[in-house]
Design a protein that fits this description.
By secondary structure, the protein is an all-alpha fold. The chain has one domain. It is built from 3 helices and no strands.
Length: about 80
């Protein structure tokens, strides 16, 4: 069985889009770092990055997935 684990950076809605773009560009550089990739492979970890829109879609999919699994246990 596989469970997804994800980490993210969040900012208030009022943060300028240029700041969000810069944060996403920085995270993409980290994910593309060969040293991190090599370490992740040794730890059996898959790493990736997503845009804010992709992240929102992913969260919705994960919510629906786990809600389905737990439907019999949650009121």
């Amino acid at each position: 069985m596989v469970f997804s684990k994800f980490f993210y950076l969040a900012a208030p809605n009022a943060v300028d889009d240029a700041v969000i773009d810069a944060m996403n560009a920085g995270l993409a550089k980290v994910v593309d770092n060969q040293g991190l990739k090599d370490y992740a492979v040794k730890q059996w970890v898959n790493i990736s990055s997503m845009s804010p829109a992709e992240t929102e879609t992913y969260y919705g999919e994960q919510y629906n997935l786990y809600a389905g699994y737990l439907a019999d246990y949650i009121d």
